[in-house]
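PROTOCOL LOG
Step 1. Enter all chains and additional molecules of the complex.
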Amino acid sequence: MDWTYIQGILMLAGINLIAVLGLCLLTGFTGLFSFGHAGFMAIGAYIGALMTVPAGVQAGSIGGLGLPFVVGIVAGGAAAGVVSWFLGRITLNLKGDYFCIATLGFGEATRLLLNNVQTFGGARGWPGVPQYSTVWAVLVVDVLGVFFLANLVKSRHGRNMIAVREEELAAQIAGVDVFRYKMIALVVSAVYAGVAGVLFGHYMSFIQPKMFSMTKSTELTIIVIFGGLGSISGSVLGALVLTALPELLRAFSIWRLVFYGAAVILIMISRPQGLMGGMELTPSGLRKARAARAAKARLKADALREAGGGDAAGGKA
Amino acid sequence: MTQFLQQLVNGLSIGSVYALMAVGYSLVYSIMNFSNFAHGGVIMFGAYFGFFGLTLLKLPFAAAFALASCGTALLAVLIERVAYKPLRDRRAPFLYFIISAMGASILLENIVIATIGPTFRTYPEILAREPINLWGLSIGRLDLIMFFVSAVCLTGLILFIEKTRIGKAIQAAAYNMKACALMGVNTDRVVLIVFALGGFLAGIAGVFFGMKYTVYPQIGNITTKSFIAAVFGGLGSLPGAVLGSVILGIIETLVAGYLSSQFRDLIAFVILIGVLIFRPSGIMGKSAEDKA
Amino acid sequence: MSANVLEIRHLTKRFGGLAAVNDVSFAVREGGIMGLIGPNGAGKTTIFNLVTGVYKVSEGEVEFQGKRIENLDPYKIADLGVTRTFQNIRLFKSLSVFDNILTACHLSAHYTIPEAILRLPRFRREEKALNEKASALLEIMGLTDRKDVQANNLPYGLQRRLEIVRALALDPKLLLLDEPAAGMNPDETEQLMRLIGEIRERFKLSVLVIEHHMDLVMGICEDIVVLNFGQKLAEGKPDAVSADPKVMEAYLGSSGGNAKC
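Step 2. Run joint prediction.
Step 3. Record the structure below.
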């Protein structure tokens, strides 16, 4: 096992992580499930390629604008964000089911469109994307991504999104503009996915619509659930484990997705709170979890004491 | 004019197959209030069951059909027991069901890829090739059979739900599961029957789909269209699902015929956007305000 | 500017063919505690939903402190100063007691998302103030020693109290309580009555209570409105209303005093 191989796995995990972080905000913290985020990755990848691929010289090659990598990243993320805004306008004030179906439809429609429109290479894809993605680039984007997300979540804005996830009606009554916060979560998650798409395209050096299929979208959501809804550290671990594991088990690659599917069902029926169960692997996160456990134990002790003392007015635990 | 009618007829027949798929989906939605994304995988299995029934087991046509639809009915029930019942017992939020459904869908698709392989299979020629001439239109025999079988099945289903005791139990459960259970209805059995029914229809739809096109593991993705048809017709309404599917089938065929076949698959999504913008409750759905 | 904090005029709400609320008018006096009573299904919670913007009105007007609020978005109404509790408790279940309140305090801070992400001074300042406010509220309401407990692990009575505290975190002028004493025994109901009175004094607000526990209603309500089948049956002081033959026939019935649900 040489360094290049490990590097490759880390790269893929790091790229996946960016998209997963976005979904972490949308699904883990705001409670909206999307099955089409690969569509946002596709938008990012193609727009990013459009920016950075040098102008077409030979016949048969697709040319771009030849701009620097950063422009590609920004444009890709922004394009995904804009499209998500339109999607949100239509679907966010409807029931959660509709949003799921709409994201599913969006993901599929994007893939179909890219498959059938020949300007970007159609089903054959777009080769010759410059390999700008380095380990450092991915690392920097990952760190920034986590930093932004963590700071957003630990603020009143993040708490409002969590309130939307917990009890939407009560959040409304508590003065939270539910539609606005859902939209913010959606757009941010789309931007993250778009950026991930750009980095992906510039790593693989070619992009194809079938890389951004419904299976990919579902894999991203599964990683968030595996790591545990409402936990950033869970998403980070989930992205690492669920990207590295199948690569290491390459021999069983056709069975990989079979195990994926089975694992998802298993997680949902046995441990839906995932790896972290909403806890964070940070000093303050661990402190919080410990305090909650202690408080619960104290509560139980109080209740038992009261019940044992035969006090009729004892509270229920 | 004849060409238009011709297209209409084609659209009707594919629409009737969509209807078989959409109805199974709508049935489950009306009872359990979640979108059963695993339905597509069940349909795909139906296509494979039928295919192997005909080629491997050399069964006669009707027997292969029966094998497929009974097989998928059992499969649907199995999925319910394994992937959904534990969540139902725990009263999990509906989004957990969707995730489990997605897992089942991935499992189904990839089990086929891993065991049988992703190559496309074609159904053997069962019916005579020459189309039937009716009123100056040439209608493929398969299309005719698809339409009639679907119509019979759907009518049978609606009669079953309206007229039988179990059917009434299903209607009651669709209204309010908890109250139904309090009234002494065995809700577990109702759910079982609903899934079996949906699975049965899925098998028929799968075989037809395989006969008209080809058999491959990703058939399940086509059924995104039938989900959209169900939304279009009104989530939870069976007549709506049928109506939505038929209209979708017709529009698709007309677009493919008159504009371009490349964009045929995109029509469904355009319709979806239209529905979500203008009338989210669908053609026959009623808008429900959340009771606090 | 009238001395009424809330005025409801000819309020009507139809669901399909059924009028859940039919031409109801009454007013809540500023600083008063008013009771809204009636048999189950009389339309009481529907009125709460109409006032807080959860439902759109079919007809009629709702005026809060002189401003028309019917059909506004619920979050805007909350911002104006109307909050409520729910019949089935709707706490943020997996959050701690403290986080439930901290979340609800959000209207007291104004920092933007960029300021939060970059941890600018305004964020730090306002966030500290929010934490202090949440702690103070919990202290006043006697929940400090449970502040780390997950909300759905609290005993039932404390869950109800927490919901009231959450409503208070929004600095309301009008507090709508939907069956706050449901499931409570006489001692707890007694405590709740005193709590409501203290809240009204301390936070200088008005209260509209839906209740079935007659001892609570008679004990603290200064005015009462009686609904039946979506229509107003009677209105007035507790003694007058309880003596009203129409009310007795429709609601209090032969059992007289303690109609618990």
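Step 4. Note key features.
Residues 2-119+140-278 of chain B form a domain with the ABC transporter involved in vitamin B12 uptake, BtuC fold (CATH 1.10.3470).
Chain B is about 75% helix and 0% strand.
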